[in-house]
Design goal:
Blueprint: H1 22-26, E1 51-52, E2 77-83, E3 86-91, E4 100-104, E5 107-110, H2 111-119, E6 140-147, E7 150-157, E8 169-170, E9 176-183, E10 189-194, E11 205-206, E12 213-219, E13 230-234
Parallel strand pairs: 1-9, 8-11
Antiparallel strand pairs: 2-3, 4-10, 5-7, 6-7, 9-10, 12-13
Length: 236
């Protein structure tokens, strides 16, 4: 699964924002605008591949517009206590629609392994700053990809190791969208982008639902106008 991809030979030409770039061609088109924002076409339910430039490419990382995962977020993100929903993540800076916010990091595991981990979890315990990796915390997200030849499903578990993204709560009306991206190899990675302008001080959220999700028995407390009342759950 971790076979390396060929790199582009764009050098310092700036061609990584056009079809002259091998990575752009493999992505079936430009993924990011010259200003570094998500191409609007990627908000479609039918997502095209996103293959970023990587260490095998000759392009300059400081000027390449086809690299997001290798860069640190430029936004000031802060964990905070939401009150009734445990910990959450807010932005301390304004974020424009289409901007990269952060990657959801964690262990990439199979759906079967994820199911076994869920079954071994203890009943819910309060989520606090000192209790973010206990056996009661669920930081699993499902990665579904659909191809003409079939589909694949993996899960990312941020409980044992991850980054600040694991504190992002679900919302039925989220301000972030998750996209599967790859950089240099076939390992899927989940990048989070703003799907609307987000003001400083707002809580960040994305939808935990997948095409195969059903509503669980756990109440959803997102407070959105179109809240489904219960959190989504992937039964498979």
């Amino acid at each position: 699964m971790d076979d390396r991809f060929m790199g582009c030979d764009c050098g310092d030409t700036g061609s990584c924002s056009s079809s002259d770039c091998l990575c752009v061609r493999l992505s079936l088109g430009v993924s990011y605008t010259p200003s570094g924002k998500l191409a609007t076409s990627l908000t479609s339910p039918h997502q095209k591949p996103v293959l970023e430039c990587h260490s095998e490419c000759s392009c300059k990382s400081n000027i390449c517009t086809n690299r997001m995962l290798s860069r640190k977020t430029k936004h000031n993100l802060q964990v905070f206590d939401t009150g009734n929903r445990g910990l959450g993540l807010m932005t301390k800076t304004d974020i424009c629609k289409g901007e990269f916010v952060c990657e959801y990091l964690g262990e990439l595991i199979s759906a079967d392994a994820a199911k076994a981990r869920l079954e071994s979890m203890t009943p819910d315990a309060p989520q606090t700053a000192g209790n973010t990796s206990s056996s009661s915390m669920n930081y699993l997200i499902t990665v579904n990809e659909y191809f003409t030849s079939g589909s694949s499903r993996w899960c990312i578990d941020a409980r044992r190791f991850g980054n600040i993204a694991r504190f992002i709560n679900h919302s039925c009306q989220p301000n972030l969208v998750s996209l599967v991206c790859r950089a240099g190899c076939d390992v899927p990675r989940v990048a989070l982008f703003a799907c609307r302008d987000i003001a400083a001080g707002e809580e960040l959220s994305f939808s935990y639902a997948s095409p195969d999700s059903v509503l669980s028995t756990k109440p959803c407390l997102c407070g959105a106008k179109d809240c489904k009342l219960f959190l989504p759950f992937d039964v498979t």
